Amino acid sequence: MTFRQLQRRFLLYMVVVVIALWVLVPLALIALAAFTPRLELYQWPRPVLPSGFSTATMSFFLRSYGTLTSLRNSALVALLTLGMTLAVGAPAGYAVARYVFRGREAFRIGILMTRMFPTSLLAIPLIVTFIRWQLYDTLIGVAFIHTAMALPFAVLITSGIFSGVPKELEEAAMTLGCSRLGAFVRVALPLALPGLAAAAMFTFVISWNEVFASAILTVRNRTLPAQVLTSLEVAPLDFRFAGGFFMIIPALIFMALARRYLFQMWGGAISER
Amino acid sequence: MRYLSVLLLAGLVASAATVAAAPDLTFMSTQMRPITEAEWVRTVLLPPFTTETGVPVVFLGAEEPELTNRILAEFEAGRGSLDLVGDLHGNFLVYYGALKDLGAELAQLEALGDRTLAQSFVELGRIGDAQVYIPWMQATYVLVANKKALQYLPSWADPTTLTYDQLYLWAKKIYEATGEQKLGIPAGPRALLHRFLHGYLYPSFTGAQVKKFDSPAAVLMWEYLKDLWQYVTPSAPLLDSMDTALLSEEVWIAWDHTARVKTAVMERPDDFVVLPAPAGPKGRGVITVLAGLAIPQTAPDPASAYQLIEYLTRPSSQVAILEGVGFFPVVTEAAGAVPTGGLKVLADGVAVQSASPDLLVSIIPGGLGARGGEFNKVYLDSFTEIVIRGRPIKEVLAQQGALLDALFRETGAPTPVPDVYLP
Amino acid sequence: MPRTPALRSLASEKALPYWLILPTIAYVAVFFLVPVVQALLLAFRTQDGQWTTRFLVRMVQDIQFVSALRFTLLLLAIIVPLQLVTALFIALLVNTRFRGSRTFLYICAIPLGISDLAAGLIWFSLFTQHGYINSFLYGLGIIERPIFFLSAQNTGWVLGSIVLAEHWRATAIVLVILVAGLQMISRDYLEAAEVFGARSWQRLWHVTLPLLKPSLQSALIIRTILALQMFAVVVAMGGRMVPVLAGEAYYWYYLYRNTNVASAYALLLMVISALLAWGYLRFLRPREVRP
Q: Domain total for chain A?
């Protein structure tokens, strides 16, 4: 390895470390804050490293009414949303990417327009509709709304993905005897998988973090953010840190799980050919 | 694998769609919402009720706008989930149309003979011909001072009869000695600054909440506030409540709602004193903060909800609430109770305030209905324009005063207390 | 180029795209269309059904309107391009597949999973008077007393803090879309460019970026729409000092309880979003992939 190469490599890792720290340091601080003894949080200057490790606030928070149930609720709602969004949205994304049809542009803009309206202003109409449809205070009801919120983005992302899959490949598969559906499933779908994973991740986190519809459409069956918002918004600092940190952990785990799909292409078919 | 995931999804849908049958009572409240207080309600206050009546209660906290929208929407849909609602007088004024008339229940309560609900509070809960809520508990706004601040108080000033001028000198002196602005007035987006303006400053300086909105006395008041603001912590526009700032000593003196300073005083009772709100030329303006209990017209189980109201207004429950979370009783039988520890510090301060001879009590204007929010906005916007943006006082007051007039004209709302006592 | 039978069969599937988009249209119509249209009408109609421009006038004359509009557009103009450049840089860096790049990408993608509420809280705890940054600087002896990063006297600092927080929180979504897009680009193109002697800058500009257009377009549209609705982070850091349009809409609906003026704000937000989205679709149109 020449000196120049070594220099470049050093520079590369410097940049990488700086960016990684930029992301990680704030996370580390809230993690520390969540386990700092409560009165130390109010000291000046606030110690970055707490004098001891206190789980008092966190365990009170975990044991309090509704916290763990809401965690389960959030996971259920997010998975349902994920399934419904991809099932409904991915075909539309494929259509927009593959076909030039009358009304395509109108569809693209129109579907995005629904997302440009601040959903928080639909509180009263949504509650009334949901009560009439027997969806009020149910998790499937929340998932329906989350799907409606994630759908425009899912269509957009998947259409971007499918338009990157060369048409010729599908056509080739069809000349080789595949049906239309077969060509899609065997050729386009595998190639688009990392992109679909990105869309799936985004959908999942939209649902996971959505607070407004979840809070307004449920009474007892709260999701985690709705639960945290109502009980911690007015709580002292130590509880806000504990709750904030607790909300982050599941997201970290989910990202770690989804990572595999995001990287599936690496070293795979296209890049090695 | 694929079948497995289909199966899994089906299971998810099934479990998410089931609504647990709920024979128990749903009690939603904007009060006692912070996590520690809500847990206290669930584990200490309510279990004896369940033991006694066999009715389990689910206590849920809610933000004010959320509760309001929920009640209005459930009313519109004609089917509800809430049995009992705990909220503030000012919020009930927005959605009272969706609430059950509790006139008969009130008579039933009073016939029990073991409790005397303060009559002025009962009156507040009567809107039109209907008793829309039953008084539940009360609170107020106070001044909390770190004991470190007391040494800077002008020697001739008595902290229990503080005036706004003395408050100004006090904050100024602290600034000159420490170089820091140590006065805290909550001015964040969810803060109660509007109450400070229309219920504390305005009556103290002009003798009225609304009537003297752009009078010469009001101009003096705004000039005072501009001067005072030099010594208010620069973080004020971020702060929704003062407890954190008091604990971290970012501020030494703070004005706020008792519920929003309570944590600080309870955490370190030896470090803080609780003082009455200051007085101005026209008196010591204070607002009565009254929380009530109401039953929505769509309540699934109004009979059990009444039982819970009965339980919560018992003198013993009222004392328990004071000792547990620091809200003050509304029944005279519980009036003498004094809590211990940090809550005693708080209760003592409130007692001194209530006994002040120059007290000038305001009540949040009724009759504005849903437009009560715009009433608050007039005061907040005047503040933003005058104090934050430095626009000419008279111009701003003329503009905002026109909006205020229109509000009262269009809703036909009556002149509020204490404005009605003015000529 | 001779038309293959397969291509003809693709072209003849006239009805198929409509069948594919139908579920989405039906879904959105059921859950959103009616309430959104009703809400938008409220911007022009009183409760008893009369048409009026009163609410639009009230919105425009409101003391927060001009600053809300200004701050919204300003934040948008700073944050979105900054995020795009950062995300593109990181995506290209990751795409060189150095040792450890997978872990690096994972770390950079973490904020994607963090809600705006939590992010607001994290950054608030850094920037407050007795927060981590001031504690740190004080501990090092750099400052004698805390700096007020978040105060009305210092709107510049407040805006800077919001930009930092929002950049930290929301760059990840752009990054993930771009990384996915980069992986779709066949190496053949780049190798061909290399064979023809294109330098790395030229390859980026003439090969990678044009091929990345669909992903760039998606990322820009999503970020712009979401940035226009940004609210929780701004409130956490800016309190009452930095009004934004989405916040005003929320306040008018929930705190001032005037649905009509709230709808006027929502309408304005939709118009701005739609104009920008149309612009992105129009000017970043990917070249149709030709066989």
A: 2
